[in-house]
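Researcher: Next entry: Short chain dehydrogenase (Massilia eurypsychrophila).
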Amino acid sequence: MVVKNKQQRDTSFEGKVVLVTGAAGGIGRATALAFGRAGACVVVADTSVDGGHATAAMIVEAGGKALFVQTNVTRAAEVEALVDKTVAYYGRLDCAFNNAGIEEEHLQLADADEALFDRIVNVNVKGTWLCMKYQIRQMLKQGGGAIVNTASVAGLVGAPTQAIYAASKHAVVGLTKTAAAEYGRDGIRVNSVCPGVINTPMLARALEREPTRQKKLRNIHPIGRFGEAAEIANAALWLCSDQASFVTGHQLAVDGGLTAI
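Model: Predicted structure:
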């Protein structure tokens, strides 16, 4: 009789406490679920109450542990409270995936207005900075940790009709590199993941507004397709894992070859 080995459950983050922002859907939800499957206690953060609770429920239903905390990452008091609640509930913070961000711009630089600039920079730059500020303070207390920020290919190259978004993601890259340099000797690794065009609800909304862009956007990826949220999740988990123990200050492009040409 041949006995087939049962597929072993991934326990690579067993006992780890992970915080994921922007986790109510898309890349954030996929990453929160992946951490949950890998054994982590996951703190789900988002402004969306329904979406955040749904993500946490999905983790629990799959056998994992999760806590939802409604958080606006642009407000320092809420971000500080998020980290405090994480530690109060689970005892520590080992990893953070700072994914909360917005993309509302499809205008050439001179056509955008100041309100749009302020809104994008407030969420994408200030939000990432605030998250790292309070996460790093906690990680310093406990002797280390790993942080991954969601940047973008637009943080590596120019992005016509998305100048403000590109500027915000270049800023995320700058924050990532600087934090990595400042806190490497404290046992804190900081990296960013830079997605290409990913098949998410955000993309679906954009294509509803401009359906003619779909073919063009797909064709800019040499691999010939959009990415999937789970593929970004895989990259984020690797960057947070012990397998990436000598990786910090790095911008990992998960972009189907977009930045190769």
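Model: Note for the record: Confidence is low (pLDDT under 50) at residues 1-6.
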